[in-house]
Amino acid sequence: MQITKEPKITLDNSLIVKKNLVGLSKKEVFDLLSSLESSTKKASMRAKQIWSWIYCHGEKNFSEMTNIDKNFRSDLDKNFSIERLNIAKKETSLDGTIKYLFSLKDDSKIETVFIPEKKRGTLCISSQVGCTLNCSFCHTGTQKLVRNLTSEEIVGQLMTVYDDLDHWEKSKKKKDGLSDCDIITNIVFMGMGEPLLNYSEVRQSVLILISDRGLDFSRRRITISTAGVVPLLKKAHDELGCMIAISLHATENKTRDILVPLNRKWPIDTLIKTLKEDLKLRNSERITFEYVMLKNINDTEIDAKRLVKIIEGLPSKINLIPFNNWSGTNYERSTQKKIEEFSKIIKKAGFPSPVRSPRGEDIMAACGQLRSNTLKKKLHDV
Ligand code: SAH
Asked: Roughly what angle, to the nearest 10 degrees, separates helices 26-34 and 40-55?
């Protein structure tokens, strides 16, 4: 279990709260170092060195940063920290999926899920504590405490899982050709929260995830999933260049208004028009649509045909997600037969339509099952 560093008390008993460098932008790190270094050039060099120690080597102690002179290391240690999140609970599913419950500094809780597969590993991260969208079939929506996560907490999820999975040691060995370090190949913002309602912190965290000589993720391996915050779709797509997934779940507004209440603000035609006309997709890029299969709600042949019509002309992939059950819901999963028939119609129209096999169901880690037992608090910041 990771323990967050206690603030240090100096001899005169004043409290020094060290600034955590994880999650700060490159410019913010540079600005902080400028207060300790005499010249801009030196501060810039130090910022690059420290960035690489934090994100390439996973180093948490300034004293180990051997290419930085000793006095400066000690100044760094006096002023800054390199922190991880506190793992409150870790559960491993029979299928190898790992669910982490993190306890944040204000005691709120978030969940992050690691999904290992044969040739890839996906980390499903949260962007908010809870979610304000109240999608009627989603467990996370039943949690009332909601706040935006900071970039520190978003990047912290990956850094903490990297520690836990021994990524840094394994990646060192990889350089010697000894082992495969690509434990996490993909990152999806599909945990708790609506990433586009926390755009500035999500943006900053993505820029850290993709920074070279750092975590170095390819934009193509990062997916932002949204219920359809239309005004931010183009901005997110153009600025970040990562993949966009849309939680569609219904093919006509009457049903989608209930499943995804955000639809009342930005209905299906507005959403699709933005995707088709405003987003300039790159070569071979496509939009992923998430479609939860709910018995007798959205799983008919008519729905499948309507879906094909809606996405006509838009390079798309439709992920069919069999509904994951949670106690207290009235929804049920569509039958296997219905799901297959639905998929067939979409495939016939030329769109890939894989059926997602639920992962980590036994530990409530599958899509839409995340929910931490935090207290009811006032909604704010969203
Ligand atoms: N708010 C964002 C990110 C959440 S991603 C979004 O809506 O895209 C989580 C995905 O799991 C979404 O597609 C969500 O609709 C889906 N989901 C939620 N509850 C589910 C459930 N019980 N079974 C299957 N999928 C679910």
From this structure: 130
pTM of the model: 0.91
Dihedral sign, CA of 5, 127, 192, 364? negative
Ligand 1 geometric centre to CA of 5 (Å)? 34
Number of C-alpha atoms within 13 angstroms, CB side, residue 140?
27
3-state SS track over 133-168:
CCCCCCCHHHCCCCEECCHHHHHHHHHHHHHHCCHH
Q: How far is the CA of 308 from the centre of ligand 1 (A)?
A: 21
Q: What is the pLDDT along the chain (382 residues), one digit of tens a residue?
A: 444 455 555 545 556 789 999 999 999 999 999 988 889 999 999 999 999 999 999 999 999 999 999 999 999 999 999 999 999 999 999 999 999 999 999 999 999 999 998 889 999 999 999 999 999 999 877 777 789 999 999 999 999 999 999 999 888 776 655 445 468 999 999 999 999 999 999 999 999 999 998 999 999 999 999 999 999 999 999 999 999 999 999 999 999 999 999 999 999 999 999 999 999 899 889 999 999 999 999 999 999 999 999 999 999 999 999 998 888 899 999 999 999 999 999 999 999 999 988 777 777 776 666 665 443 333 333 3
Q: Whose CA is nearest to atom 17 of ligand 1?
A: 368
Centre of ligand 1 from the C-alpha of residue 309, in Å: 23
Report, as residue numbers or ranges, the catalytic residues.
111, 367
Per residue in 58-78, is it b (16+ CB within 10 Å) or e — as a string? bbbebeebeebeeebbebbbe
Using alpha carbons only, what angle is made at residue 316 by residues 131 and 95, rounded to the nearest 5 degrees? Answer: 60
User: From the CA of 332, how far away is ligand 1's center (Å)?
Assistant: 15
Question: Among 122, 321, 332, which residue has the most ligand 1 atoms within 8 Å of its CB, making it the best to mutate?
Answer: 321
Does residue 153 have its Cβ closer than 6 Å to ligand 1? Answer: no
* Among protein residues, the one whose CA lies closest to atom 18 of ligand 1: 368
262 lines ligand 1 (CB under 6 A): no
Which residue, by CA, sits nearest to atom 4 of ligand 1?
Answer: 190
